[in-house]
Design brief:
The complex is a heterodimer. By secondary structure, chain A is mainly α. Chain A has helices spanning 2-25, 30-42, 45-70, 78-94, 101-129, 134-157, 186-204, 206-216, 218-223, 228-255, 266-276, 281-304, 310-324, 329-342. Chain A has one domain (47-288). Classes of the chains: A mainly alpha, B alpha/beta. Chain A binds chain B through residues 204-207, 209-210, 212-213, 216-217, 219-227, and chain B through 308, 310, 329-331, 333-335, 340, 342, 344, 347-354, 358, 362-363, 365-366, 371, 374-376, 378, 418.
Amino acid sequence: MTGRLSSHLGPIAGALLAAMVVIGLCGFNPFESLILIFRSALGSPAAIAQTCSSAAPLVLLGLATGICFRSGVFNVGLEGCFVLGGLAAAVTAGHCSTLPAPLAILFPLLAGSVAGSLWMLVPAWLVVFRNLDDVVTTLMVNFVALDLAAWLVERFFLAPGSANSATAMIPAVTHLPDVGFPGLNLSFIISIICVAFYAAWCSRGTLGYETRIVGWNRRFARATGFGVRRILVSAMLLSGGIGGLAGAVHALGTVHQYVTGFSAEYGFLGLTVAILGDNRAPGIFLASLLLAMLVVSGIGIQLISDVPEEVTRLIEASFIIFASVRFTGFGRRLRNWREGNAR
Amino acid sequence: MTGLSQPRITLRNITRVFGSHRANDDISLEIERGSIHAFLGGNGAGKTTLMKMLQGLEQPDSGEILFDGASVSLGSPQDAFRHGVGMVQQEFSIIPQLTLLDNLILGAEPRGRWGQIDRQKALHDAERLAVLAGVSIDWSLQAGDTPLHVRQIVEILRGLYRGSDILILDEPSAVLPREQVQNLLSLMCSLRDRGHTLIFISHKLDEVLAVSDRISILREGRHVATLPREGATHDLLIRHMTGEAPRPAPRPCEKIGSPVLEVDALSIRDPRGVMRVRDASLRLCEGEILGIGGLPDAGQIELLECLAGLRLQERGRILLKNQPIERSTPHTRRTVGLGYLSADRATESLCLQASLQDNAIAGRHNVMPFSRWQMLRPASISAHVHALLDRFGVRRSDDLLAAGHLSGGNQQRLAMARELDAGPCVLLVAQPTRGVDLAGIHVIHSLLVKFAEEGGAVILISEEEAELQTLSTRRLTLHDGILVPEAELAA
């Protein structure tokens, strides 16, 4: 058990250390920067609330990525689902101003989820039925989604009088309400519910079982009568749906419209979350909080000090590098070497 | 005393304990220079642990290892390598993308003046080795394109190339087609005649008796006996290995029922467009064990895969219990009553990363009693699987252990438990006892016979002539993709 814990905390500690060295080399005080990050992300109740709210889309994207990773599909296409899900939610919310609050929120969330799922149909078909490479396909489709969203906004949904490419602000009734605490909105609760569902789905759901087996050994799955294609397509559509939900939550909870630059590459942060969290529910949740701290503090840190925002991006990048160590042989060799020494 | 008269390897009172399990218990024996020394023993007899100590992967808790009469301490594989110990891996460590030559020199490349690989010298050395071993090899071929036995020869030569004079061969014949085994054995003999010391681990008594100079038998961690070949017989070896007289092989009964599987004019083309099976027709009845023999790679595997639904036929019909299934998915065929045990146990019959439980319910995980409303039911799964694995005698410490931790025989029992638990009427079986020890073979054969006695039908593919001989009630031979009937065997 301690071994597993250290294999999670190892990359995080290593990433922090490496980032601090680079920050120091750039001429900033690394300890001061780190303290600043902590203070602006966790320094006040309001800051904590904001960090938790920002973590919500990351949690959802991490879960969405994890579902595909488990089934052996390296899905990096959630950026597209996130963007289209956000757009669908923002547009739907604009038509919900006369509905009672629960429905006015539910419909846009559903719309975002459906949009994300539908968008995933294209790469799912290409990867599962046409045997195209999963990484290339899902990655490339992202750019199509971004441009499609921009075109849709320009052509149909442009806010009146808006110079940049943005939809109208959504009506107040569709904003995700705060729960118990100012700044902590419903998205955090949604993400916790999804984490719980994911944990149950992994250990108890038949599809969770099937994706695990298919991810490990596709030949075995085929020979024992699994519908491998059905399972892979289901996993990818489910993943896209949750990715779209993440976009919807971001639109209703934070941005309150769809606008160019809506995502800030959240889809790829979801990838980091899933890798850091080892596709497990608790890991994904904690990794999201960690990355949300960096996202939130990046904005604040520049206002209150002369440490540039890029410092947080640097730490983020360092997390990605260290998290991917697990994917290469290096991490395994390191472990073998350690075990050899222990004997 | 000169070094030559000393045994090459002497083991003195070697003991290795894992927890409460004595893997090696006070083992003392000698291995002569320039001989083939075989080790026999069932799974868990302690052969693997003993070999790991010779390779420096494990260290004895007590006792000592002597090379040429001098005590050595083998703390690491590098130490063992320095003393001339080379290992021929059971799972090949050949890299398929490299040429045979590059595989041979990998890790010990001859260097030119600028540090570049001196392929000229490498090729020269390689040719010399090949001549020495009495084989001819095209070193420029990509390893992945060469047949298994060539890769294995290169694997053996690699040990020599790096200067090892002790070669440990762990089940070298397990993956080879039958006609190549003879070549392997003669290669071993010619290496012995050139003064190399070979340690030969195998479950196949015939091979052991054919080439070994001396045979050591281990049982439950103890050294039972070391016999010279002249004094060894089949029965004596089995008695030493199992501690009891050989049990008679199970015989199938001859109670034939109604037909369950009918194949009509089935033709199968492989992805490269080569016709592998041509117009095969057969009819299989309840209680039958149909053995299909023939040269290796004559289309047997393709035929079985096609029946299992893993490969599409070009034309032909398959009727299972009078239902046409030639267009059905593997899942549908299994539901109608087909079971399949692949020759590729590690990657197709089992998922080695998954737990025993996950393996045991695969394919039926989405029906009662294992799941309801798309949710698994852990309590009933674990109760059912526990009873099932007990019934099939799968030895394990925990049902949640990864299947890869089981020995070969136990893995096969796990796979059989799953397939038979589904209650099939036809069982397709390929190479069921490959890499399985004697006791395990007996269990697996008994299970197959019992299944047939209870009205099941079996199609058996095996490269072991003896296995086909004892188990089959009827035999066919595949020759160039054409099914040729053999005379009905008398009961």
